[in-house]
Amino acid sequence: MNAPVDCRKRGVARLIALSAGVVALSSWPATTHAQDAAALYRRCKASIVTVSTDEATGTGFVVEDGSVVFTCYHVVSDGSPIHVKGVESANAVLKYYDKNRDVAILRLSKRFRSALTLRKSTPEPGTRVYVIGSALGVYERTITEGLVSGIRHEGDRSLLQISASITHGNSGSPVLDVSGDVVGMAQSFIPGTSINLAVTSYDLRLTVDADGLANQDEFSPDLITGKRGRNHKKSTGPNEQVTLGRLGEAAVPTEIRDKPNMSAQVLMSVSPSQRLVYRHIGKGNWLLVPLKNGKVGFIPKDDVYDLPYTVYLKPKPSEPIKAHPVVAELAISFIGLPYVKGRGDTGGMGTSELMQLIYRDQGIELPHDLDAQRKVGKEIKRLKDLLPGDRLYFKSREVAYIELAGIYIGDWKFVTSDPSEGNVCSHSLRDPKWRDRLVGARR
User: Fold this and answer.
1) Residue 271 near residue 250 (C-beta atoms within 8 A)
2) How far does Cα 389 stand from its chain's mean position?
3) SS (H, E, C) the chain
4) CA 158 from centre of chain
5) Whether pLDDT at 211 is above 70
6) Could you count the other beta carbons within 10 Å of the beta carbon of residue 300?
7) What is the pTM of this model?
8) What average pLDDT does the structure give for the chain?
9) Do 133 and 141 meet the contact criterion of CB atoms below 8 Å apart?
10) Can you tell me the distance from the alpha carbon of 165 to that of 92, in angstroms, rounded to the nearest whole number?
11) Are 116 and 172 in contact (CB under 8 A)?
12) Are 262 and 302 in contact (CB under 8 A)?
């Protein structure tokens, strides 16, 4: 079987005659398909660019706020200057890459006016898709049409197999659904076949999440780092800096996972000497790694050197009280761990210990007693005012005392360590069993 070929174009010598159908629009099975494709092309073409270095040419597409471009890592891996050209042009720098998934994120020297959106779900086989890219590195914004032929899994990455034609120069081309959302990114093809492969949008979103790490020396402008002196006092004022975590450095090649166990899904690989912000989460063997987008990951404690710095987050003055996505994400990450009364590490935990651990991580020390916890923080009096990260307190069925506490995660759901279920799990406030027992909420 022929091996897949990456679809960048290297040098003028690679320029070959175009075969019918490679660049031209595929034959449409119906007039409506042609109309859909034409409308999609007009809507998306300004977000698609040619990415070139001294050694290679490929395709990319603009996402987020217009300052970020996705392309394949093999297009920009030579380390030479990167230039991006489309309806607009700019220079770019390699901001982040994942070799395993062959994904690179570029930061543009200026903001483009048009951008695409990554689809959250993976399309099913049979879904109609379109590819727009720089065929052969010369024919910019060429569109082809096809179907998702299958979903392929290789290790911890997933690939779309598509019938839409791609060739040299198409590396990094967006694979679009009929709505114009990105469902994948063209990566390689097998010569002499109709087998073409693309990175799924799910893997692209994982790369975006991983890019949220404070890797190397690049920190958000709102982050302040400094040595933690002996007389350091934790800030408590509403407009003062709060602790985000400790600064660490990977000691060995390792991985960030979505839960604190080795069988959990890998979010990204971490290279030796890569810097990251981490937090301790009790007596377990894992560290929590906060991401800039509010999500969290976990890394083995033994794989990280501690550096003599604490990283602080400085909130903006007069910022209104809002959701606590880190708290909600951390609560979700513990789902499935066993209920063990009185435990405070990741091997299992009771209801009170779950609340204490998560909020201690945010610099908030809660009492062990649930009745006392209920009096800490701002009271929320209406269900419609609940935000992710708020604390919920439930009375016993028989007597009037606080029996259970949970963390609201949105969509009427909350996470708790439930002795009746025997583990950390989620329940819904739409269930009268829980709504009728709710006696308090705090932020």
Assistant:
1) yes
2) 19
3) CCCCEECCECCHHHCCCCCCCCCCCCCCCCHHHHHHHHHHHHHHHHHEEEEECCCCEEEEEEECCCCEEEECHHHHCCCCCEEEECCCEEEEEEEEEECCCCEEEEEECCCCCCCECECCCCCCCCCEEEEEEEECCCEEEEEEEEEEEEEEEECCEEEEEECCCCCCCCCCCEEECCCCCEEEEEEEECCCCCCEEEEEHHHHHHHHHHHCCCCCCCCCCCEEEECCCCCCCCCCCCCCCEEEEEEEEECCCEEEECCCCCCCCEEEEECCCCEEEEEECCCCCEEEEECCCCCEEEEEHHHEEEEEEEEEECCCCCCCCCCCHHHHHHHHHCCCCEECCCCEECCEECHHHHHHHHHHCCCCCCCCCHHHHCCCCCECCCHHHCCCCCEEEEECCCCCCEEEEEEEEECCEEEEEECCCCEEEEEECCCHHHHCCEEEEEC
4) 15
5) no
6) 17
7) 0.46
8) 77
9) yes
10) 28
11) no
12) no
Q: How many of the other CB atoms lie within 10 Å of CB of 340?
A: 17
Asked whether the predicted pLDDT for residue 236 surpasses 60, the reply is no
Which amino acid appears at position 306 of this protein? D
* Whether pLDDT at 197 is above 50: yes
Half-sphere exposure of 76 (CA within 13 A, CB side): 30
pLDDT tens readout for residues 50-109: 999 998 999 999 997 788 899 999 999 888 899 999 988 999 988 888 888 899 999 888
Out of 97-111, 246-260, 306-320, 383-397, pick the least confident: 306-320
For residues 216 and 97, the answer to whether their CB atoms sit within 8 Å is: no
Rounded Cα distance between 78 and 100, Å, is 16
The pLDDT, as a whole number, for residue 225 is 39
Tell me the residue length of the chain.
Answer: 443
Q: What are phi and psi of 327, to 5 degrees?
A: -60, -45
pLDDT tens figures, 406-431: 999 988 899 998 888 888 899 998 88
The full 3-state SS of 68-109, as one line of letters, equals EEEECHHHHCCCCCEEEECCCEEEEEEEEEECCCCEEEEEEC
Distances (CA, A) of 275 to 157, 256, 270, 294, 379: 24, 13, 9, 18, 38
Question: Structure tokens of 271?
Answer: 């290279």
- How far from chain centre, in Å, is Cα 248? 21
Extract the tokens encoding 122: 């993976």
Alpha-carbon distance of 38 to 33, in angstroms, equals 9
Residue whose token pair is 């009280």: 321
